[in-house]
Design goal:
By secondary structure, the chain is α+β, with helices and mostly antiparallel strands. It has two domains: about 160 residues, no CATH class; about 160 residues, Immunoglobulin-like. The chain is built from 15 helices and 17 strands. The strands form six sheets. Strands 12-11-16-17 form a four-stranded antiparallel β-sheet. It is flat, with a radius of gyration of 27 Å. It starts with a helix and ends in a 25-residue tail after the last helix. This is Multiheme c-type cytochrome. Keywords: Membrane, Transmembrane, Transmembrane helix. InterPro entries: Multihaem_cyt_sf (IPR036280).
Length: about 450
Amino acid sequence: MVRGRRRRRSRGGWAVLLGLIVVASVSVYYFYTEIRPTVIFGLRDDYARAIPFQSVPVGLESLKAEECGQCHQDIYQEWKTSIHAHAYKDPFFQAYWKKDDNIWVCLNCHTPLENQQPTLIQSIPNNRVERAVQIENPMYDPAYQQEGVTCAACHVRDGVIFGPYDDSVAPHPTEFDPAFRTTAMCYRCHNVVSGPFQFYNVGPCGTYAEYEGEFFMKEKGFTCQSCHMPEISRPVAEGGPIRQGRQHLWRGGHDPEMIKRAVAIQVQADPPNPKPGDTVNMTLTLINAGAGHKIPTGDPDRHFTVEFFVKDNTGAVIAEHTETMGRWILWQPVIVELYDNRLLPLASRDYQFSYQIPQGRDDLVVEARVRYHILTDGQHAMLRGSYGLRSDDPYRFMIYQRDFPLSEKLSVALIDQPVDTRIGCAKDSSDVVMPHGPLS
């Protein structure tokens, strides 16, 4: 009888356990299908839908960038080199988009006009992008989609071409829009927010929210355009008057040269004249001297590595040390930003490395390096192996590299370093001086 009672209790326990498993399974299913969003950002009204269909302004034959380029030749040539022109064709976007099942919402920034999209969104129940009601777009132009963020995305509304001038004599309808001279032009696509059960401090493409307006804009007069669309004096259209305009380049987090302009780097050492047996303490100071927002910014996978390598005269690595600057995000079961050690505007951080020089060795050098990564090695391997990313697409770049001899010659190498004292996107140190002065 004792054994029988135990058997009955065991059956009851199994029933309870089975019930708990069923409840847990239903809860997990409900969480992933009803609560947790599919995409890694939330929807905001202005980018939840494409920019409404735009008609061709009177005087033009089409909205194609090439049509604009007939008169605005310099601007057209600049645009063709920009990431805006390649926003749809970019191999990293295409691979990530394939990974995300080619979800329609990504197109609202990468091909933002309804003219460029194969479907029209009728409704988005409960802001769940995977449940959006879509219909075929009869005005879809596949060739136009290839232009990504094209001229009309910013300049054309309701058959009128908008721009930063109030005295245009163009052969098509024009209108002055003061927003072209402010950061408002960048807001729609560069201020993506977080969604339900997504715990970012700033959304995954939240550069606009990171912009430091008090110093950069109010004191220095810098807007996004100051760095990403440099000023230039030239005719806006062929044969027109010379104006103070802007280049349509939009270099940014995809461009290693732009990253180099954003950072200032200086290395110090103690003692500066080491001998065999001494322990040398190296300090690399990395300063966000050139960006009015955090660095790195944009896609959460972007990061810096600061690296020290001790090498002998054959180039063999004897010792090494690496630190990382970026964001660490937990993607499952909810999105949580675990850590963010990126640099705020004008902020700096010291990275340190110590090494004891072996007796009898005066042939060693410390190679100090800073590398910028568009994505992690693991992400790159995954995108290349499963989602069609070309293996030769560069995704990490050397931003700084310099050798420092671990001998009495070290002091000379330290003195020979260039001193960078600029702020913002100034091209040289004569424009402005950093508040704390040059490093020494």
